[in-house]
Design a protein that fits this description.
Helix content of chain B: 25-40%
Largest interface: A-B, 60 and 56 residues
Number of strands of chain B: 7
Structural class of chain B: alpha+beta
CATH class of the largest domain in chain B: Mainly Alpha
Largest sheet of chain B: 5 strands, mixed
CATH superfamily of the largest domain in chain B: Alpha-helical ferredoxin
Strand content of chain B: 5-15%
Radius of gyration of chain B: 20 Å
Number of helices of chain A: 17
CATH topology of the largest domain in chain B: Fumarate Reductase Iron-sulfur Protein, Chain B, domain 2
Number of strands of chain A: 22
CATH architecture of the largest domain in chain B: Orthogonal Bundle
Largest sheet of chain A: 8 strands, mixed
Strand order of the largest sheet of chain B: 2-1-5-3-4
Oligomer: heterodimer
Order of helices and strands of chain B: EEHEEEEEHHHHHHHH
Chain lengths: 577, 235
């Protein structure tokens, strides 16, 4: 096996991973390992913007952004982390601009800002323009700019290398083992510091906004290393996924003034969020839509409602929402200047993930004991910035702020560690070798597509916008059964070169691992908070459930633990929009 | 449910003596894209069929390929708009094949690097705020910053077919994106690589790139603007 030695190895080349690499690469030897070319990363699909209280268009303050983020998280976010997120937001936006991000501009040449759901002025009272944007291609513009900067600084990129195993022993990470997709074969990445920036995992749902690559690789590798995941039951459903495909239609469409209309032609948000209407947070809107659909007020009684942009006019749509216009046309056959867009809630974003401290260091228990040399940031991590529900435009912000912080922390850690790289533990790569052998050699009868599609249908049906004891128990039963069937999986493609069937088989293993904590955590949490809504427990219960879930994978199944929420400034209050 | 026939290029240089075409018949529900059909084949008929894909909505740039002779993104190609039967699917032309529809993009990205595809600034930016740029100046980047680096344009370019050293439309459009960014001060540093027989002057305005671009961009126009710029810088 080829062994690569670097001071820092970042896994994942989206916004969080590349930002971290930029922070370490001028100080220490840095490599980025990614299963896709960096510009293919899912950060590039982010559309609407990146939040920061620049106050370029209307008065704004970080405290207002802080309050909105806390309230948006349904008070489950850790306020120490959230305070850092909003305070450092202007800094990363300016840094992005200095690196070359082509932001849209105000008439006087400042970075333009638009309204977005859940963001307000004066502690939830007045309309706000906080989202810094590059038309509706903000993530694309940021991702390409960070990639370009990595090229400029000569960051070592291992493209199309797919992580199979994380080497963790006795609370220390030594690196990981990856599969060279192009040539076949295992490569060991031996490092002083490893950062997971592997993104989200909404591919576990049938209707999702996510890329096919978003299979939660880093999360399942952390579980397999005996470390916990945090708050996995909190998964955001985006209110405006295209009907059937789930493809994202940016919240910017509502930020710019789009309406949501039901089958009776009503702006139904009047009933659910009379004040903020279409600019209520995503969890609120997705529940409202689903209620309309469930009660027969979808369009023609079908499982979708309309997003209507017609009143904005051609000029505004083409200037500010050109990609939405393109997507609606290409994937729903709708010209949104002339017709409304059919939309439905679509699995979108993981609030939970790998528990970290505010420097990105991974934590292994309720007492927040750190794992030496292991970091995580972006959607795969849980600091927790987003608690039970994330606000739009806070995700790319999270990637930038906490990717950056993780990079700074890793550079410092490596400098303090000195020259020597600790020896790899014995047999470090064995689990990866076994995995490869098992999948290539298996003569089992099970086929990938059946297991995967059944999983995704089960998750959409039972772990969606609304959940109950029954639906979640059913999901758990199905997942257990599919995990067993997975052991009998075999693949047809036995070649070493660019074996995407092998990759999909490993990814399916990841999907089946991380969904279990989502369901078990959801079953245990007998309350409704943010995106986790139980019809059998429709109220938030701060007395019993104002706490973070931790979930470990054990021989006996998922073991749960809890840790308190950090509250520094805003005590929980009723959440109304 | 309607079905369509697909004739797909198959080749693994490590194991196959020569490329071949394989036919498949696939169910195509209304709204199916070529990517949906490829997935259907891979998942239910032939797990060895190999292609890149990720976002499935035209932003990641993974799945550019040649479909009925034209370069496009498989995820955006609606099956019902493709009249020829069977639908012929091939890897992007003029890039080395790794396997089936997957091509080696390393050379493509190496060309990108040659044009210094990043903002070059000599004047330090303000420390605690953004550089200002007027909306009119920012507008110069529209039609360039949207490039998803899928390679459809460069692969379609006859000048690139004839001269593998040619930078190609994607790298040149990237050069445009920076040289026409009013914040950039790197035009001189990019002149040599542009003003070169493998650079701008290799473009003979054939416009294939414009036809191939899935994002509706116009690299040929941008190359024209760069030619004017280079001449005005030099003389």
């Amino acid at each position: 096996m080829i062994i690569h030695r670097h001071d820092v190895v970042v896994v994942g080349a989206g916004l969080a991973g590349l930002y971290a690499a930029l922070m370490t690469s001028d100080k220490v030897d840095t490599a980025v390992v990614s299963k896709v070319y960096p510009t293919r990363s899912h950060s590039g699909a982010a559309q609407g913007g990146c939040a920061a209280s620049l106050g370029n268009e209307v008065e704004d303050h970080w405290e207002w952004h802080f309050y909105d983020t806390v309230r948006g998280s349904d008070f489950l976010g850790d306020q120490d982390a959230q305070e850092i997120l909003v305070k450092e937001a202007p800094l990363v936006i300016y840094e992005c601009e200095h690196m070359g991000v082509p932001f849209s501009r105000t008439p006087e040449g400042k970075i333009a800002q638009r309204p977005f759901g859940g963001h307000f002025g004066n502690f939830g009272k007045t309309p706000m323009r906080r989202s810094c944007y590059a038309a509706d291609r903000t993530g694309h513009a940021q991702l390409h700019t960070l990639f370009e900067q990595c090229l400029k600084r000569g960051v070592r990129l291992y493209n199309e290398f797919f992580l199979l195993h994380l080497i963790v022993r006795d609370d220390r990470c030594y690196g990981g083992v990856a599969w060279d997709l192009r040539h076949g074969g295992l490569h060991c990445f031996h490092a002083k510091a490893v950062m997971l920036a592997t993104g989200g995992y909404a591919r576990a749902w049938k209707i999702t906004t996510n890329s096919m690559s978003n299979t939660g690789d880093g999360l399942s590798l952390v579980l397999r290393a005996g470390l916990p995941l945090e708050d996995m039951e909190f998964v955001q459903f985006h209110p405006t996924g295209l009907y059937r495909s789930g493809i994202l239609v940016s919240e910017a469409a509502r930020g710019e003034g789009g309406y949501l209309i039901n089958g009776k032609g009503e702006r139904f948000m009047e009933r659910y969020a009379p004040e903020k209407m279409e600019l209520a947070p995503r969890d609120v809107i997705s529940r409202s839509e689903q209620t309309e659909i469930d009660e027969g007020r979808g369009i023609n009684g079908e499982a979708y409602v309309h997003l209507d942009l017609r009143h904005l006019g051609r000029e505004a749509i083409m200037e500010k929402l050109p990609q939405i216009h393109e997507l609606a046309w290409k994937f729903a056959g709708v010209d949104c200047i002339e017709e409304p867009i059919p939309i439905q809630p679509s699995a979108h974003y993981a609030m939970g993930g790998i528990p970290t401290d505010v420097h990105g260091q991974v934590l292994k228990d309720e007492k927040k004991t750190p794992v030496v040399g292991l970091y995580a940031a972006g959607e795969c991590a849980c600091v927790s910035n987003h608690g039970a529900n994330r606000l739009g435009t806070n995700s790319t912000l999270d990637c930038c702020v906490y990717g950056r912080r993780s990079g700074i922390a890793m550079a410092k850690f490596v400098a303090e560690e000195g020259e020597l790289l600790p020896d790899l533990p014995e047999g470090a790569a064995e689990p990866a070798r076994e995995l490869v052998t098992r999948i290539f050699k298996s003569k089992g009868k099970e086929r990938m597509v059946e297991i995967r599609e059944q999983l995704r249908e089960t998750m959409t049906e039972n772990m969606g916008v609304f959940r109950t004891e029954d639906s979640m128990s059913k999901a758990l039963r199905v997942v257990k059964e599919l995990q067993e069937r997975y052991k009998e999986l075999s693949i047809q493609d036995k070649s070493q070169q660019f074996n995407t069937e092998f990759m999909e088989a490993v990814e399916l293993g990841y999907l089946l691992d991380f969904v279990e904590p989502i369901i078990v955590g959801g079953l245990a949490r007998k309350e409704s908070r943010g995106a986790h809504f139980r019809k059998d427990f429709p109220q938030r219960d701060d007395k019993n459930w104002l706490k973070h879930t931790l979930a470990w994978k054990t021989e006996e199944g998922i073991r749960l633990g809890y840790k308190p929420v950090v509250i520094t400034r805003f005590p929980p209050e009723e959440r109304k929009y | 449910m309607p079905t369509r026939r697909f004739k797909i290029f198959r080749y693994n240089p490590h194991t196959d003596e020569r490329p071949r075409y394989q036919e498949y018949e696939v169910q195509v529900p209304t709204g199916s894209t070529v990517l949906d059909a490829l997935n259907e084949i891979k998942w239910t008929q032939d797990g060895t069929l190999t292609y890149r894909r990720s976002c499935r909505h035209g932003i990641c740039g993974s799945c550019a390929m040649t479909i009925n002779g034209a370069n496009m993104l498989a995820c955006e190609a609606q099956v019902h708009t493709l009249k020829r039967d069977p639908i012929v699917v091939e890897p992007l032309r003029s890039f080395p094949v790794i396997k089936d529809l997957v091509v080696d993009m390393d050379g493509f990205f190496d060309k990108l690097l040659l044009v210094k595809p990043y903002l070059i600034v000599k004047t330090p930016p303000p420390t605690d705020k953004e550089r200002y740029q007027s909306p009119e100046d920012r507008k110069l980047l529209d039609g360039a910053y949207e490039c998803i680096l899928c390679g459809a344009c460069t692969s379609s370019c006859p000048s690139f077919w004839a001269d593998k050293e040619f930078l190609g439309p994607a790298a040149l459009l990237k050069a445009y994106r920076f040289i026409f960014d009013t914040r950039d001060e790197g035009v001189q540093e990019r002149l040599d690589v542009l003003d070169n027989k493998h650079g701008l002057w290799r473009c003979h305005t054939i416009f294939n790139c414009v036809e191939a671009c899935p994002k509706g961009l116009n690299p040929t126009w941008a190359i024209g603007e760069l030619k004017k710029k280079v001449i005005s810088e030099k003389f």
